[in-house]
Every structure is written in structure tokens, then in C-alpha cells.
Design a protein that fits this description.
The protein has three domains: 138 residues, Alpha-Beta Complex (Peptide Deformylase); 194 residues, 3-Layer(aba) Sandwich (Rossmann fold), CATH 3.40.50.170; 93 residues, Roll (Methionyl-tRNA Fmet Formyltransferase, Chain A, domain 2). The protein has a seven-stranded mixed sheet with strand order 11-10-9-12-13-14-15. Strands 16, 17, 18, 19, 20 and 21 form a six-stranded antiparallel sheet that branches. A five-stranded antiparallel sheet has the order 1-2-3-6-7. The chain has 464 residues and is α+β, with helices and mostly antiparallel strands. Helix 8 runs antiparallel to helix 10. Helices cover 25% and strands 27% of the residues. Strand 16 and strand 17 form a beta hairpin. The chain is built from eleven helices and 21 strands. The structure holds zinc ion (ZN). The site of zinc ion has 5 residues, from helix 2.
Length: 464
């Protein structure tokens, strides 16, 4: 038997009561190292020495907050109870609902023989109880209310590029077998906004996941590599490239995460367009990818409210997190064969076109609430633009001015303690944060101290 190989039921060593360690010496430290390595290789959250064939009272646990090593561990306090699904590296293919204490305090020796106490709840408490059971020859199947076959962990290839895709990438890495990540090629630095490596590539590298960057999505070499990975599912989020028909046939399903409640806001800029339109609710949708962009059958949706304080930036971050959870739930349902499928109502479809340079320019003839929404939607990047005194000025934050002197659209009608008030087509807005050309973002009050903006000046004036 190879060193570090995990023993499986019905190996008799798993049923023996393990002996206490009398002295924590170098051998024990080497055992701890071997156990941690074996646990990580198997992607488990805990391991007990008998699982490596060594009948000694030593356990390691890591539920994601760093490794805990315990020699001669004992539960010295326990309270509450909680039933949840458990599996075991020594009982492959089975899972069961196991009642455990919800909170425990475990005392034991660390790798230097010093006594430590670990207070744990939730998953950590469960893992510690499971591993200590191993020291007494007890397996989770002995305690389980019912035992069933574990569903296979799905093999997933993730296709993504930008920041929005990162939470989904991380969730898939945690919950599935992420066999590769596909992202766009690197761009030479110093040319436009999207330079260097895509954020998804950087993170995938850190996680040690294979990265594919095909120049063309139809590249035969890329398609061959993809097929050889035998993925069950392709998951797409913030990818920025169209999938050609041969890709749609890979695996059991190709699904996409879209940051809107489809069929509303199909297209590349759903987050900005939702805020610009003054929507108070948006959401995330998972769907089957079809040849028509964002038109595939819906699997799951979750509503996400848009608060008046939200900007494009804050909403994007929240939708990215909500979307990652929705993708994990979607994959779980796909694996169980329980994923719903609901065609989109074409009659309700709206389109969210990309934000062009022209879209960034504030229209002061619009209603005050629309100007405010325009500013929110584009903050902090690219930022809503106007001009003042012949120079570019970006507006990062603005609110409706409740009462303001009359003025023509774009006219500065008042200076306040926090900024300045600009008349709109209907109503007026108070500008609170600006970025003058070539400068950083600054509170409008600071801007007023450094620049000579006056009542009667115009923003976005023709010819500016
Ligand atoms: Zn186990």
C-alpha cells in the first residue's frame, strides 16, 4: 500500500480504538505533515491517523480557516444539536444525515506538545466530532439517520473574464471539480482599458486551475482540449465572447449567469441600464445558453433590490455574489436532474446596449431623477461626463435638490455647503462629488474651494 493512501471501510484499522500518543516527538510531527498532505490531496476537511493505517489519537481538520492539528483530542464541552449531511474519505460514495453537537470545545496537544483548546461550531464542530469518532473506531454511517449514495461531484469548465466572474469562479472551485478555466487572451499593456491578464486568469492561477486562452473559440486544438477534459457542465459568466455552436454541445449542459431578471435587460450592460432606468429591483438569472444571446431557457432567478444609494459599482459587486450562489444551486439541481427549464417571454424582452462614449455624457435637459440615475449607473467607472469652462468634468455623486432657484438646463443655480446645484430639464440636482479633468475624484465642496465655479456658470454647454 502506497504511503499516505487513505484506508477504506471495511479495513479493520478503522474499527480499532486508537492508542493515545505518549510523547509528541518528531515522528508525530511527521505524521501530522503526512495527514495534512493526504487530506489536501483528497480535498477533505479532516483526517484521523487511523485513516492512514496508524492507530494513534491524532487528527487534522481544515474547513477553510487554516489547519487545526490535535494530538489526544477530547471533547470537554458540548451543547446543542444539529443534523447535516456528512461523508467520509474512508467511506467513498456514501453520504448520510448525521446528528451532532452544534458547539463543542475540544482540548488536545499541538505539534509541540502544548495543550490547546478549540472552540468550534457549525462545520468545524462537526468535522472535529467526526474525526474524534475515527479514534474510537466509529464511522459516520454508524450514527447516520439514513445513508444514501453520494451524487458524483460534477466536472466543470468555467468561462469568464472580468471581476464580476470572480465570486462564481471561487464558488465553483469550492463546490465542484473545476477542471479548467477559459478566458480571453492577455492584451498588451498600455492600450485601452482592458490591458494585461484578465482578473479570472490571475485568480485561476492562484487556485492552481488550468487556464485556456484560445485566440478563437472555434480553434480545433482548444475544442479538442476541452473535450478531453470531459466536463459535465460549462458555466459562463462575464465572458465577453460568443460561444459557437460546437461549444454548446460540450458536456451535459452549458449555462450562463446574467445579472438581470431576464427577459428584462438582455445584452452587455444590464446593470448600468437597470439603474439608469430607475429600476428598484433587478436580479440574477441562470439559463441554458442558446445560439441567440441571453435568450436561452431560464433555470433559476433571484430578485435583488436596488437601493437609492446603489451605484453601478456597488450593485455589480452584490449581483456577482448573489450570482455565484445561484450558479452553485443551479449546478446542484442539474446534478440531481431537478433543474427547471422555463422559456423566456419574448414579448417582455428589453435590451441593454453597451455603454458608449456618448452614453457617458450627462443630459442636463433630462429630469432631475434621470440625471441622478445616470450618475449612479456609471459610478465609479466609467463615470458620467459633462464639461465646465471648456474642460471635461466627471460627476460621481449627485442627488435631487428639493428646492432650487429657477434656471436653464445645465446652469449652476446655487452653491451649498456640500456642493453645487445644477438646473435640469425638470427640477435640479445637487452635485456632491466630481473629478475635474486630469485630477482625482473629490468632494464637490473641495472642488469649489480650488476652482472658481460660480452661480450662472453652465455645465455641458454647446461648444464647450
Ligand atoms: Zn471520516
Amino acid at each position: 500500500m502506497a504511503a499516505g493512501e487513505i484506508r477504506q471501510d471495511p479495513d479493520p484499522v478503522l474499527r480499532k480504538v486508537a492508542k493515545p500518543v505518549r510523547k509528541v516527538n518528531r515522528q508525530v510531527r511527521e505524521l501530522l505533515d503526512d495527514m495534512l498532505a493526504a487530506m489536501r490531496r483528497a480535498r477533505g476537511v479532516g483526517l484521523a491517523a487511523p485513516q492512514l493505517g496508524i492507530s494513534r489519537r491524532v487528527v487534522v481538520v481544515d474547513v477553510g480557516d487554516g489547519p487545526i492539528e490535535l494530538v489526544n483530542p477530547e471533547i470537554v464541552h458540548a451543547e446543542g444539536s444539529e443534523t447535516a449531511v456528512e461523508g467520509c474519505l474512508s467511506v467513498p460514495g456514501l453520504v448520510g444525515e448525521v446528528p451532532r453537537y452544534r458547539k463543542v470545545t475540544v482540548s488536545g496537544l499541538n505539534r509541540y506538545g502544548r495543550r490547546i483548546w478549540v472552540e468550534a461550531e457549525g462545520l468545524l464542530a462537526r468535522a472535529l466530532q467526526h474525526e474524534i469518532d475515527h479514534l474510537n473506531g466509529v464511522l459516520f454511517v454508524d450514527r447516520a439517520l439514513e445513508v444514501r449514495e453520494a451524487l458524483p461531484v460534477p466536472r466543470v469548465v468555467f468561462l469568464g473574464t472580468g471581476e464580476f466572474a470572480l465570486p462564481t469562479l471561487e464558488a465553483l472551485y469550492e463546490r465542484c471539480e473545476l477542471v479548467a478555466v477559459v478566458t480571453r487572451p492577455d492584451r498588451p499593456r498600455g492600450r485601452g482599458l482592458l490591458t494585461g491578464s484578465p482578473p479570472v486568469k490571475e485568480r485561476a492561477r492562484e487556485l492552481g486551475v488550468e487556464v485556456l486562452q484560445p485566440a478563437s473559440m472555434s480553434d480545433p486544438e482548444f475544442l479538442d482540449r476541452l473535450a478531453s477534459l470531459e466536463p459535465d457542465y460549462l458555466v459562463v459568466a462575464d465572458f465577453g465572447r460568443i460561444l459557437p455552436p460546437p461549444l454548446l454541445a460540450v458536456g451535459k449542459a452549458v449555462i450562463n449567469l446574467h445579472p438581470s431578471l431576464l427577459p428584462r435587460w438582455r445584452g452587455p450592460a444590464p446593470i448600468e441600464r437597470a439603474i439608469m432606468a430607475g429600476d428598484e429591483v433587478t436580479g440574477v438569472t441562470t439559463m441554458y445558453v442558446s445560439e441567440r444571446v441571453d435568450a436561452g431557457d431560464i433555470i433559476l432567478q433571484k430578485e435583488v433590490p436596488i437601493s437609492p444609494e446603489d451605484t453601478g459599482g456597488t450593485l455589480r459587486a452584490r449581483l456577482a455574489r448573489e450570482g455565484a450562489e445561484l450558479v452553485v444551486e443551479t449546478v446542484r439541481l442539474l446534478v440531481r436532474g431537478e433543474a427547471p427549464r422555463r422559456p423566456q417571454d419574448e414579448g417582455l424582452a428589453t435590451y441593454a446596449p453597451p455603454i458608449t462614449a456618448a452614453d457617458e455624457v450627462l443630459n442636463w435637459t433630462a429630469r432631475a431623477e434621470d440625471v441622478v440615475n445616470h450618475v449612479r449607473a456609471l459610478a465609479p467607472v466609467p463615470g458620467a461626463r459633462t464639461t465646465w469652462s471648456g474642460r471635461l468634468m466627471k460627476v460621481g455623486r449627485a442627488r435631487r435638490a428639493e428646492s432650487a432657484p429657477e434656471g436653464s438646463p445645465g446652469e449652476v443655480v446655487a452653491l451649498t455647503g456640500e456642493g453645487f446645484v445644477v438646473a435640469c430639464g425638470r427640477g435640479a440636482v445637487e452635485v456632491l462629488e466630481v473629478q475635474p479633468e486630469g485630477r482625482r475624484w473629490m468632494p464637490a465642496a473641495d472642488f469649489l474651494r480650488g476652482y472658481h465655479l460660480r452661480v450662472g456658470d453652465f455645465l455641458g454647454k454647446e461648444g464647450d
